[in-house]
Amino acid sequence: MSCSLFDTRDPEDPGQGNGSLFIQPDRANDVIDNLINAVENLNQLNYLRCLSDNIFEYIPTSQAQNNAPELWESWSKQDEEAYFNNMRAAAENFSGHQLQFQNEDFSPSGNTTLFTADYSLTIIHNQSSAQGNIPSVVTGSVIISLRAEDGLWVIESWSDASDSNSPSWSDMRATFR
Q1: pLDDT score at 7
Q2: Helix/strand/coil for 13
Q3: To 10 degrees, the CA torsion angle through 128, 130, 133, 134?
């Protein structure tokens, strides 16, 4: 089978590959830029491209861990995909999604870089629960370990920490998982 510039490509699934810039992650900070773009545009394909195919570990906030230990004990890239897809489905008819990082620090060490930052994530969605409305804004801080795999950077490990009593990104993951 030969490859030609004039061959047609397979179509993307609706809503998974549209409206979001993806920068080839030649540097660790490109992954963070891609993550921001993917979240703000609810682009599942680009979100998953930020995560390692080989190793992906998510460490929730201690409160989320205590609330549902069974949910987090084997959290994987597939769980991350399910969470993002469910969140995207609940939010796709809305606009104003935003991911902001403050107090960013990149600490390189060989082929690994630690990214630490405070975050504010806004996802406008249509979901509520028996306990009431699910928050649209979550805040906290992250420690993300980025690693170069075959020359391109990806997220290998992601640790979430809450800031006081505000809902965290872990809470949003648990809600939409």
Answers
A1: 53
A2: coil
A3: -70
Q: What is the pLDDT of residues 148-159, one digit of tens each?
A: 988 899 999 999
Residue 56 DSSP symbol = -
Phi-psi region of 96 (alpha: psi -120 to 50; beta: other; left: phi over 0): left
Q: Give the integer Cα–Cα distance in Å for 26 and 128.
A: 40
User: Could you tell me if 20 and 38 are in contact, meaning their C-beta atoms sit under 8 angstroms apart?
Assistant: yes
d(CA 96, CA 73): 32
Which pLDDT value is given to residue 68? 92
How crowded is residue 53: how many other Cβ atoms within 10 Å of its Cβ? 10
Count other C-beta atoms under 10 Å from residue 29's C-beta.
Answer: 16
Burial profile 92-127: b = 16 or more Cβ within 10 angstroms, e = fewer? eeeeebebebeeeeeeeeeeebbbbbebbbbbebee
d(CA 83, CA 51): 14
